[in-house]
Amino acid sequence: MGRKRQRKRQGKAPRAAKPQKVSENGGPPLYTEIDRSNEAFEKYYKAQQIVPEEEWEEFMSALRRGLPVAFRITGFLPESKHLLKIIKSQYFADLLNVGGDEEKVGKPSNLTWYPDELAWQLDLSRIMIRKSEAYARLHSFLISETDTGNITRQEAVSMIPPLLLDVQPHHKVLDMCAAPGSKTAQVMEMLHGHVNTIPEGVVVANDVDNKRCYMLVHQAKRLHSTCCLVTNHDAAAMPNMYISKEDGTLEVLKYDRILCDVPCSGDGTLRKNIDLWRKWNVANGNSIHGLQVRIARRGLELLVEGGVMVYSTCSMNPLENEAVITSLLLQCEGAVELVDARSSLPGLVSSPGLHTWKVSSKDMAVYTSFEEVPETYHTQIRAHMFPPSPEVAAQLKLERCIRILPHQQDTGAFFVAVLKKTAPKLPWESQNKDKECEEQQDTKEDKSIVPRKKRRIQGYKEDPFVFLSEDNKIWKAVRDFYEVDPSFPNQQLLGRCQQENKRNIYLVSKTVRNIIELNSEKIKIINTGVRVFCRCEGKEELACDFRVCQEGLPTVLPYLKKRKLAMCRQDLYVLLTEEYPLETQFSPELQEQLKDLEKGCVLLVYTSFPGTPDEFQLVLAGRRGKATLRCYVAKQERVHYLRVCGYDVSEYEKRDRRKKPEDTPKIETLEPEEAVEYAEETTQEQTENDIKVGVDGWGAMLTMGEEHNTVQLLQASKNLRHIASDVSTHLSSRTR
């Protein structure tokens, strides 16, 4: 046989550089600004009459401006009210004193329709951040607090659908198209907002895109909820899930509240997604209408009788809004009604839903009925896209839909409709639907029955969810070390591996456990629960190998009787500003509590502003070493705690703005001796304490040997060795 001819690889020719416009004075290249206009867009929406003719210019002018920044404070946190005071008294007060061109723009305004003054909006562009120190401070503050979950940066109109759901702690909630997760986080806040214990309800956050599901997990984890379950399924074909009732029988999981924020053409986001000006065309709305109907229809099937579903889009197109609602109401034949929710948000300026609209093809040909549509367009234009007769439209009460337009309150455009299910079954649901549930029950009781073939789950295979048994070694060690109260729901603890040597232990609510046990083989669950315990990897032998995690501490603290330490304000400052503080740096009261306490995890409790309306409690997870006491709190959270406790954090904010990524070494890459020096340098930079720790302090004491006796020098040397040991232990756990 002949040898294969080796083909010589040729390199690709270099791509020609794009021509650039050069300024007349030889300066940097000039770029033409994106054209914020689209003739087809204006023609289409003028024909739809979504705004009165006299408001058209104002409407278009608002669309061509940039979108203001909006954010909301996480309302269920104990320090939320005090954080609001700090924002208003410090950051907003600075903005009011800004002069010059910024006087006309950039002033913060409260979103009056959001409860408790927790949502705000302001113009904040990159130019303003560069020009003004006040804007730069606010920008750094928003980034820092967003990372810790205390603030969520979210478009103003996007906050409306969760508010209309009116979620209560016992509700079972489904977010059908949840990613990236800002609305899901808002729903979780409402679920936790009225109780101090683990809520009975659950939030099932679903998305069809596997990658976006992990973005959703990131959002949900900031709130440390035990009641969130992230799933990865097509919302239009969302599978039934089962839960067991108190008598042990199974039933299909029906939801009290459903958020149906469907995919859309997104032309309501033109103010922030300016590339849509160039890409917009009529076909975008026509092509996605069918998917929106299918998703909303499936949502109504999963809704319990008397439950509420909020349908929303960030589109102005009536084919994606009123046409979808009309199709649903006509198909439901009275089993679903459109609720007037406009009075639920006083202060929100909106327009009523449309009763009639135009249907166009991609070449902008307008049709008044389906009979006029050419056969070639029948796959793009459907009969149920056309508006109903005036009599039917009046019966459906389409004016109860809520349209939010950009010029009304300087926001993006949005559409919301609130639907209530008034019957147990919908007309198209077969009476034989219950047979599947009966079959599931029979399979559970009679093991001889061959179950249905498992649903094939696409994408990455997730780690299993394994609940801990009562006699589990990990649980026994944790229970004895922390003296856990018998009322603690240990049957709701789980790990993500089959092996006994688990590294992380998570806690979920009772409802989430119920769902996982009965549906884990047919539902693709991405993530759930909050991490409450994790293994301490190190060389030292401890009485318990598991420490309490900071994110799960507020949930488990009421059940733990041992290892709690009360600290004062100065103790809190030392813990938050130093990485490895010595025990001698703390107050005598805290040192007394540490005297007979063995090494390991400790829970440090501080009450801020006691006896005042601003009183709240902070709890930190820490570790007692040989001679040190440190806390396991991330940097941004430390700054947050210092801020809400009244300390000046301006230096930290300036440092973050000045710091370059290459300035900070990765501690995992350092040798133990270098890590000790780095920890000492960081400690000395972050504290005003006069006590010298580490090599520099040891050297200083050597130079003053005449003033210090041998005992003091030996004690300092011993302290240094203990610090090095603690750092080495920390490094070992990080590298493993």
From TrEMBL:
<dbReference type="InterPro" id="IPR023270">
    <property type="entry name" value="RCMT_NCL1"/>
</dbReference>
<keyword id="KW-0949">S-adenosyl-L-methionine</keyword>
<dbReference type="GO" id="GO:0005634">
    <property type="term" value="C:nucleus"/>
</dbReference>
<keyword id="KW-0539">Nucleus</keyword>
<dbReference type="GO" id="GO:0005737">
    <property type="term" value="C:cytoplasm"/>
</dbReference>
<feature type="active site" description="Nucleophile">
    <location>
        <position position="314"/>
    </location>
</feature>
<dbReference type="GO" id="GO:0030488">
    <property type="term" value="P:tRNA methylation"/>
</dbReference>
<feature type="binding site">
    <location>
        <position position="234"/>
    </location>
    <ligand>
        <name>S-adenosyl-L-methionine</name>
    </ligand>
</feature>
<dbReference type="GO" id="GO:0000049">
    <property type="term" value="F:tRNA binding"/>
</dbReference>
<dbReference type="InterPro" id="IPR057285">
    <property type="entry name" value="Pre-PUA_NSUN2"/>
</dbReference>
<comment type="similarity">
    <text>Belongs to the class I-like SAM-binding methyltransferase superfamily. RsmB/NOP family.</text>
</comment>
<keyword id="KW-0819">tRNA processing</keyword>
<dbReference type="Pfam" id="PF01189">
    <property type="entry name" value="Methyltr_RsmB-F"/>
</dbReference>
<keyword id="KW-0808">Transferase</keyword>
<dbReference type="InterPro" id="IPR023267">
    <property type="entry name" value="RCMT"/>
</dbReference>
<dbReference type="InterPro" id="IPR049560">
    <property type="entry name" value="MeTrfase_RsmB-F_NOP2_cat"/>
</dbReference>
<dbReference type="InterPro" id="IPR001678">
    <property type="entry name" value="MeTrfase_RsmB-F_NOP2_dom"/>
</dbReference>
<dbReference type="Pfam" id="PF25376">
    <property type="entry name" value="Pre-PUA_NSUN2"/>
</dbReference>
<keyword id="KW-0694">RNA-binding</keyword>
<feature type="binding site">
    <location>
        <position position="207"/>
    </location>
    <ligand>
        <name>S-adenosyl-L-methionine</name>
    </ligand>
</feature>
<keyword id="KW-0489">Methyltransferase</keyword>
<feature type="compositionally biased region" description="Basic residues">
    <location>
        <begin position="1"/>
        <end position="12"/>
    </location>
</feature>
<feature type="region of interest" description="Disordered">
    <location>
        <begin position="430"/>
        <end position="451"/>
    </location>
</feature>
<dbReference type="InterPro" id="IPR057286">
    <property type="entry name" value="PUA_NSUN2"/>
</dbReference>
<protein>
    <recommendedName>
        <fullName>tRNA (cytosine(34)-C(5))-methyltransferase</fullName>
        <ecNumber>2.1.1.203</ecNumber>
    </recommendedName>
</protein>
<feature type="domain" description="SAM-dependent MTase RsmB/NOP-type">
    <location>
        <begin position="59"/>
        <end position="422"/>
    </location>
</feature>
<dbReference type="GO" id="GO:0016428">
    <property type="term" value="F:tRNA (cytidine-5-)-methyltransferase activity"/>
</dbReference>
<dbReference type="Pfam" id="PF25378">
    <property type="entry name" value="PUA_NSUN2"/>
</dbReference>
<feature type="compositionally biased region" description="Basic and acidic residues">
    <location>
        <begin position="431"/>
        <end position="449"/>
    </location>
</feature>
<feature type="region of interest" description="Disordered">
    <location>
        <begin position="1"/>
        <end position="31"/>
    </location>
</feature>
<feature type="binding site">
    <location>
        <begin position="177"/>
        <end position="183"/>
    </location>
    <ligand>
        <name>S-adenosyl-L-methionine</name>
    </ligand>
</feature>
<feature type="binding site">
    <location>
        <position position="261"/>
    </location>
    <ligand>
        <name>S-adenosyl-L-methionine</name>
    </ligand>
</feature>
<keyword id="KW-0820">tRNA-binding</keyword>
<dbReference type="InterPro" id="IPR029063">
    <property type="entry name" value="SAM-dependent_MTases_sf"/>
</dbReference>
